[in-house]
Amino acid sequence: MLTTGLLSPRRLPAPDGVVRVALVAAGALLLAGDQVRIEVVARGNVRVEIVELAGTVAYAMRGGSARWDVDVELSDGASLSWHGEPFVVAEGAEVDRSTSIRLGAGSRAALRESLVLGRHGEAGGALRTTTRVALGDEELLVEHLDLSPGRRSGWAILGDSRCLDAVTTLGFRLPEAEQTLQLEGAGSIARRLVAAQHTSDLGEVWAAL
Amino acid sequence: MGTNPELVALMLADARLPTGGHTQSAGLEPAVLAGLGADGNKLGEIEEYARDRSRTVTRVEAGAAVVARYFALSGLELTPVERAWAARTPSQALRAASRRQGRAYLRLAGRVWPGVLEHLPGDGEIARPVVVGVVGAVTGLSAVQTARLIGYEDAQTVVAASLKLLPVDPVDAACWLTALHPEIEELADAVRGLTGPGEIPACGAPLVDVFGQKHAAERMRLFHA
User: What was the ipTM of the complex prediction?
Assistant: First the structure.
C-alpha cells in the first residue's frame, strides 16, 4: 500500500519477487514544520528496492525545524535496498533525522545515506541524526550524531568535511577494508568524510553489493 | 572493609597504576598525524578535541561504566551491558583497543580487588568501561564517581599524550585539563542515574572512528590507540 503525503511513492516495473518504489517529492521539501515519515514493512521472500529520483534540500527554517523519520521492519527473509540521494541541509535549516530498523531472522538491508551540510558556498544548517537497528532481540547499531554548527567542525567529529557519506549493511557484512567499520554483530558501515559528495567512492562500494 | 572509595578513585586515575595508560592517546596520535594542532600552530585544538570526545565517545564509555556498576551491584550478568556498549562502538579497531585495555585492568583488578572476579572472568577480553564499572561496584565508588573517573581519564589521556606529540608547555596542558572540569562534571551528571543498557548514550564521533581504524593499521606509532 503506497500513500502520498509530502512524498509520493510510485511503483516502478520490477522482476518477480522485487518491489521497486521511487520516492518523489509531492511539493517543495523540506520546509519548517515538515514532518516526513516513511514506513517500510516487508515480510517473506521479497526484496524491496527504494530509489530516490532526486536529492532533498532542507531549506532555511527561520527558527522552525523539520523531521525526517524512517521506520523499517523486515521479517522472514525480506530484504531492503535503499539508495538515498544527497540530503542537503542548507544554511538556517534545522533538521532531525531518525532511522529505526528492525530485522527478523534471515532479513537484511543495505542503505546509502549522503548527508551534505550546506549547498555550494554555504556552511549549512543544523542536523541531528539517530540510528537504531535491532537484529532480532539484540541491538546491532545505535548511533546519535550531532552535526550542528559549533558541534561538528572539530577533529573528533567531521573536521572541515561537509559531506558524511555512508553505505550501511545490516544482517550481512561488507568486505574488509581499512575504512569499513565492522559492527560487533552482522553489519558494516563504509563511511567517507569528504569535501563534496561527488568525490566519495562509495558509488563503487554500492555497485559491488 | 578498609578501602576508602576516594583513594580507589585516585588510584584508578593515576597513570602510575600499571594498566598501560601511558600507551594510550585517546586517538590523539592519529589526529595529530592528520593535522590536528597544525604542527604546533593551533595547540588550542587539543583542548577542543578533548571536549568533543567528552560530548561523544566518552559519554558512551561513562554510561557503560555506570550501568555495569549498577548491574554488578544488583548481581546481574554483565553481557547485556557489554553488548549495548558494542552496538554503540561501531569501529572494530576501537572495540579491540578498549578490550585490550579492559584485559590489562582486569588482570590488575583481579589481584588487587578479587571481588571483581565474582562478576568477570579473570582472563576475559572485556570492554574497559565494563571492567571499570565492576571495579567501582566492588570498591564502593558511587555512580557519579565512576562516571567522573571515566571522563577525567579520557581528558587526561588526550592532554598527557599531547606532551609527547606536539610542542606543548606542560602548564598549558594542566590549564586545558582544568578548563575541561565543567565538561567532565556535566558528563558525570548526565549519566549518573542510568541503570539500563538501552539508556547508554550513543553519541558518535565519525572522525574518531576514521582515525581509530587508520591507527590500527599504522606501524610507526608512539601509542597503541
Answer: 0.95
